[in-house]
Amino acid sequence: MGNVFAAAPPQKPSALGLQVIAPPITASPPGSSQLGATQSPTPSTTSTIEDNHPGTYEDLHKKCKDLFPQVFDGAKLVISKGLSNHFQISHTMSLSTFQPAEYRFGATYVGRKQFSPQEAYPVLLGDIDASGNLNAHVIHAWTEKIRSKFVTQIQGGKCQASQFSTDYKGKDFSATIALANPDIVNESGLVVGQYLQRVTSNFDLGAEAFYQYGSQVPGGELSLFSIAARLKGQKWQLSGNISPAAGGLHACYYHKINDQLQVGAELETSLRLQESVGTIGYQLEIPSAAVTFRGKF
Bias category Low complexity: which stretches (predicted)? Predict the structure, then answer.
């Protein structure tokens, strides 16, 4: 299926890709043109530096995943208004046959601390529904090399999920440490470490270590290790990561056909569950009409 919407920069996935929280942030992500060109917290410095930097492990499959539309059931109306270059509010109304109609109020604030014309901090995003359920993001760069993110989800007056992560950007590598859902009373939580290294101008290599502990985990604790690689050309990119202990494989392929058409394919395989899921997506832009069409199947 596909959807048509006004051309806008693709949204960045939230948090570390841990899927701990997927808050339906309705305001434009930090960096939307509606907020005075304060594009995404992802560092955006000179082209020479960016060409030699692999980005974060979280963004390993970003080029491919950004092609896929955000599919939902029913109808959704989003009204956004920028009150200044630093502050924006939004109203979101959703209708669905599977759940009651919902209204959410959202707000985005982008601070004045700038490292480049398209990068400003701190960034505060949040939305709340009529029942007081809250989703919030806080993103701040302490220096040009160190950036932290905090994500939380509150429902029924209780914190259902939270995650804190810090990224360090070196000259040709990035390192991330994250802590999710820490519970001192019940002695549970999740710790993740990620590293991505630029090996050559076309090849990146990385690794991820995952450790979870708590009474709900079989044996009281669980640890996994994954390795990842990304190979890219002028108009294409192949990325993948594999977790030998879990028997998991995740691969993505991205190709830019021309200035208007981009395609991507994603494959997720679990040897433990003996199943695979494949997705093919595309993005077609019509610059003259300021319209972008995305679809996947």
Answer: 38-48
Task: Return the pLDDT at 52.
Answer: 72
Is the distance from CB of 163 to CB of 178 less than 8 angstroms? Answer: yes
Q: List % helix, strand, coil for the chain (3-state, nearest 5).
A: 5, 55, 35
Instruction: Give the whole-angstrom CA distance, residue 76 versus residue 71.
Output: 11
Q: What is the pTM of this model?
A: 0.77
∠ CA 225-60-260, nearest 5°, is 155
Q: Around Cβ 244, how many Cβ atoms within 10 Å?
A: 12
The Cα–Cα gap between 187 and 3 comes to: 44
Write out pLDDT tens, residues 143-183: 999 999 999 999 988 889 999 999 999 999 999 999 999 88
Query: If you search the block for the tokens 């048509």, which residue do you land on?
Result: 4
- pLDDT for 193-215, tens place per residue? 999 999 999 999 999 999 999 88
DSSP state letters, 236-256? EEEEEEEETTTTEEEEEEEEE
Please say whether the beta carbons of 135 and 120 come within 8 A.
Answer: no
Digit-coded pLDDT (tens) for 241-284: 999 988 899 999 999 999 999 999 999 999 988 899 999 999 99
- Residue length of the chain: 297
Please state, in angstroms and rounded to a whole number, the distance separating the CA atoms of residues 60 and 173.
Answer: 13
The C-alpha atoms of residue 143 and residue 120 are separated, in whole angstroms, by 11
Which CATH number goes with the domain that contains 88?
2.40.160.10
The count of domains in the chain is 1
Q: How far is CA 124 from CA 6, 167, 197, 207, 220, in A?
A: 24, 17, 29, 30, 35
Q: How far apart are CA 43 and CA 116, in angstroms?
A: 9
Whose tokens are 């290599």? That residue is 205
